[in-house]
Amino acid sequence: MVSYLIIGLGSLFLYWFCKKALSLNRNIAIAKAAGIPYRVSLIDGIPGYLWIAAHDVFLGPLNSFTPSQNWLWPKSVLLHPHRGWFYAQELRESLGEVYLIVSPNQIFLSSSSAEATSQITSRRHDFVKPVEIYAIVDIFGPSILTTEGIEWKRHRKIVAPAFSEKSNALVWKESLRQTLGMLKSWSKLENNCSDDMKVEDTAPSTAMMTLHVICAAGFGVPQLWDGEDEVKLGKNVVPGFNTTKLNGSHQLTFKHALNTLLGGIMWLAIFPVGLLKKSPFKVHKRVLRAYFECGDYFGELAEDKSQKIELGEDPEAGVMDVMGPLVKASANSPEESKDCYLTKQEVISNSWITLFAGHETSANITHYCLLFLAIEQDQQADLQQDIDRIVGSRPSPEWTYETDFPRLWNSMIGATINETLRLMPPVIDIPKIVREIPQDLTYDEKQATVPAGTIIHLSAVGVHRNPRYWPHAPSKLTSKAHDLDDFVPGRWLASRVSTDPKPSPSPLISKASDPKTTRMNTNHCSPLFTPPKGAYMPFSLSSRSCPGKRFAEIEITATLAAIFQTYTLELDVRDWASDVQIAEMDEEEREMVYERARERARKMIFGSRSEIFLKMRGSVGVRFLRRGGERFRGI
């Protein structure tokens, strides 16, 4: 009996092995005919959850073991499930800007070429969005993010107009108000005051701040920080949404439900709701409760908006109003509306995606901006000089979107935001797929054919750090010939950068740079540097680019300007020296202490992981000091 079992299992294994071998040989033959460099791997270019888990548990720790870095990862980088973040440049340099990874189950293409990326994103009928991989955020049903083709056009036609120029002044005003609220909340932390604020982790606060902005500006539901009087809400009180008082059958406030859902969304991606209902684990019960509560809240918000519209309320009066157009569209019939309709469930799903994507990305980028500026004190000083030059001592509530935002954006603030997005793109790889018909692709004077069924990752990390497209100099932090792994916002300043095709003698452009793409000039009136088409895509490209791009730029600009008009930000160095010790140190000793804090902060930042969005694991403590109290400036 045992021998029969062994023979049966052996036969199954042999069948599986032969099937995989034949599949691999077939894919290798297809890759050879494509005319694109390729490498063979036993692990798919996009690995499954099982391999990611196995790697993180067993192989991941070896990556921090110095001896293994010299022999394991150089030889097995294709096996690394996070290679698109940690090894994008090494792969580009060794395999080329466009390459294939061939496995038994998959042909995978990665592009760090601006020319190829531009073609792929502009030909959206040939290279389509693989909506099936967005199931992780598709928890309430199809939306503008998770549809393609005619369905996507229908959703975009209704959702995108809410992110219009006439709404931007409201986003600006609300961002300034919420930033002041965030600063006040920090000043109330234990042992803090308004002149000296120690914050162990700014990420939760920036997430709360951006959530407040999208709730107020996008949905007409203003929010309060802990400790603020609900009287400030006036007539805008919505129980559960912006108060601690709950309504109906709700057990959680809206913010509590949303934060719980965001923290446990991976469970909904791995297991169906029906299975989670039967789970005995408390974490699953909490996530499921938050999921149903959020769905109910979105439904109630839609019903409230519907009633107000019936009473004659102008849905665009005083708010950006994402919900108004969605609710109006849900009242239309598919037959008579010329594709301007949504189902009630699609109202909820688009509300969720707008809120989720609209605050997670802005929160993370604001968090990274603050840390980079705390690390680079000289860059922070330049940013403060620009703020002083533009708004002077005027209090932030007096700043206007029409006058002050354009000048602040085209200053060191815009350069800081763009440089942070270049280094830390929210989505590190933009996915595409070739369905049934192979597609021709021309790039760098090469002709290639992308095979049918190929899954594509447009590498934001690879192209954002490609020396062919960016002003650069030798790195001051590493031995690399370029500083594209470093935070250098000056590369964006129009006073130094242009896209004139003539080569430049400036030392800020490496001799290895492509003279067709970048050079320096001294035109102080130009906007920020514009990268070549396809070289910069933190918000995706072409028709599928994020409709909330301008919203995020306005929000983060307002936040940085309001903070740094008043405060200087430093890394918290208390792990190495007390305030008394620092006061007694000379400049060289202070520099040694601060460099240790810098090294740890950089390690934490570039040790971030991409789950849904790129996000830092762990925290970096910082300290906000009223300007004039700087301790590490100029060292």
Q: Please, could you describe this protein's structure?
A:
With 635 residues, the protein is of the alpha+beta class. The chain is built from 23 helices and twelve strands. Strands 1-2-3-8-5 form a five-stranded mixed β-sheet, sandwiched between helices. Helix 9 (168-187) packs across helix 21 (549-566) and helix 14 packs across helix 15 (323-330).
What order do the helices and strands come in, and which of them pair?
Layout: H1 2-34, E1 38-40, H2 49-59, H3 66-71, H4 73-76, H5 83-86, H6 88-95, E2 98-102, E3 107-111, H7 114-122, H8 149-159, H9 168-187, E4 196-199, H10 203-219, H11 254-263, H12 265-270, H13 273-278, H14 282-310, H15 323-330, H16 344-375, H17 377-391, H18 404-409, H19 412-423, E5 429-433, E6 439-443, E7 446-450, E8 455-459, H20 460-464, H21 549-566, E9 567-571, H22 579-584, H23 587-606, E10 609-610, E11 614-615, E12 622-626
Parallel strand pairs: 1-2, 3-8
Antiparallel strand pairs: 2-3, 4-12, 5-8, 6-7, 9-12, 10-11
Q: Which key phrases capture this entry?
A:
635 residues, alpha+beta, 3-stranded antiparallel β-sheet, 12 strands, 47% helix
